[in-house]
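Appendix B, example 12.
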Amino acid sequence: MTMTMRKIGYLIIILVAAFSCKTKEQPETKKKMTDIEKIESLVLQEKYRDAITECEKFMSSHPANERIQAADYLSLCLLKTGNLNNKYYYYKGSIKEMYFAIPMNPTIARSYFQFECGITLSNNEINWMLIDGLQNSPAFWYLFEKNSIITGSERYYQVIKNSTTAKHQSNQQSQSTQQLQFTEHNTWQAPPVDREKLLQEWKIKTQTEPSERIIATGNNPINGIIKMFEACHNNKEALEAYTAIILFNKDLGALPEIAKRYNKLGYASLPEYVQEAALIFLGTAQVNDFYGFEIEERIKQQYRAILQAMDRMESLQNLKKKFGNTYTYYCYLWEFEMMQEQQQRQQQQRQQQQPLQQEQ
């Protein structure tokens, strides 16, 4: 990037940040931490199991259009605890809002997920998050600072931070805003970034110097994760994220390569969902191992039970109750569940329209 282009980039971001903040001052008020802020706070403190509990509460108590942020943080926390391919399908609503399912503008959680896989943020991603008003979140600045250390753009980070003040809506009707100094009046603060520790961890994770990095590409995180999986064979986070993508897309032909990579990295066993997927891939439970990994007897019994229940033509409701948290259910039956829900919605709409038609 030339010096002129870099200056233009700085100017655009500064103008975006300035536009997002109004100058009218209002009395200071203490705001209550939102559910998402609580999740963010726990994630940045690396209290991932507590954050998973909060994500589960959020996703079970909020409508689908509000669950995406919590689903993204759930993906991140499961990745950090090594359970992305053991537990993801346990959580209500998680499949519909899964991180890999919906390309969209960058969010803090999605960008953080990529970063933990060894993929840096582009200036375009940061730009989008500023446009979306995410500069109010300490989590945004925490991620932005870590990214700037890895990319060698700490001056850029300071320029944007110094030109931006956090704001929040105090009255939706009048659209009046309050101007707050960053973290001074926020309900929580991000922990300090340990620069040397971050650089060392990054070098181990990616086996490269920070200057030799894979950059996130637009609103679709999958491409960056695939590149990292192919480029860095010792990156466990990238392997587990790539595995989740393969399972979600039902691309089971890639399982042998994945199993070999788990073996190379010294895993004692395959994740639960990979074991299930291996049985589906082989078409039988009459196997003892898959590329050197034992298939647990519990997994084989569960697989047989699902097939037997399907042969008995048990109702989808019963199948979901018994096996809804398994990968096998997702692979064989989830699409039928979605079709059933769609038919029910259409029926409800027709019933609601009938009284109106009779009145006319």
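Residues 15-20+32-166+184-249 form one domain. The chain is about 60% helix and 5% strand.
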